[in-house]
Protein 1
Amino acid sequence: MASASLQFFAFMLALFGVFGDITATLLPNWKVNADVGSNIITAITQMQGLWMDCTWYSTGMFSCTLKYSVLSLPIYIQAARTTMVLSCILSAFGICITTVGMKCTKLGGDAASKGHACFAGGVCFILAGIFGLVPTSWYTREIIASFLDQTIPESSKHEPGGAVYTGFISAGFLLIAGVIFCTSCFKKQQGAWIYPSKQHHFPSTEQESNAGYNLKDYV
């Protein structure tokens, strides 16, 4: 029962991780203009994401421009696009697979099949968490390096936006959920190996007793 509750908790973490992963991929505020120097008095908030760049004016106007050309983007943005999409796909597969493998569901067949499905879903979550953690870390590193570069003017400096933090938290949720699923499945299999089912058969004793009864019948 405790293992089933733990799997359900991991499944809820994975759901939050999937939703956060998709949200972080689509949000346009991976980096925002930093409020330093002369930028403090500006009435414009500029945001840059993986797919579009947006500008928010103090008057309430909001405009976005899509990034159509992929080759013109920096390499870290191209890598972030690819890895975040892979993270979303793997986490969605993990949700489908663990739904079959969880103990609290009636899908997946016998216990061995459910255990294998649970382990496969946990691996998908771990890979999704890694794919989500790599682009957010790389993107943050580029933002910090650009911010600390003295040759870049203050008007062109940015700081991490909400999408980066959402990506970090989502990757953490997916990693924790994947480890819980894989660990619960491993413990179950290990217990089966250490404590095998005890089935005692005494064919010789039964044969001797049957032979004794046969001999008595002839006396």
Protein 2
Amino acid sequence: PYYVDLNQNLFLQASLHSSDLNLTLFVDTCVASPDPSDFKALTYELIRSGCVKDHTYFSYNSSYSDVAQFSFNAFSFINRYPSVYLRCELVVCREGDYSSRCYEGCVSRSKRDAGS
């Protein structure tokens, strides 16, 4: 566990360890939950499909394409849960492949009209 105070900035970094130097890393989704085995019932979204959901979330530009860095403000689930767990999904793409998910950025899904 990593202990922080409420509203303290948390800085995270993910690194890709590969002999292929032409890969890039993209943070697609990060979701928090008070239950480490359930990220569906009670969750808080920091970023979803590349779209920032929390106003304290900030992505840093790394000088290395195989490193993703971001930060957010520590929060609590209505002061009822002593711990918060984070699950992040990252995407690995070929550097310079502008048609890949890494270069799409925020992908908001449009809702379909159910009709009558």
Protein 3
Amino acid sequence: QYSLIKDVVSSLKRHRMHEQQFTHHPLLVLSNFGLQQIQVKLMASMFQNMLPSINVHRVNLNSIKRCLLISYDAETQLLDFRHYSVKVVPVGVSKGLKKLLQEKFPNMSRLEDISELL
């Protein structure tokens, strides 16, 4: 079973597709591949070698825009592929500061001072 990209995009309320998402390879996440069966180990090795490895100490987290999740179900012996778009957003800050951090300019016409925004 699969879905075409045009069907996925048409079902989304706000889709985020831009060329910058595909300038860097996705982060690969393998789930349930820890079984000792040789075919499961072979599949895990194949998926790991399809994409370049990521050095966690050197990678710029802002460059990772996608995540590829591959999950194996041992009972049905089926693979589940999920391809996610990743967006980094500031958390735990005021609405005005969040807009500034995202390089959006908030409406400051109702404010007396910049401190009211922050």
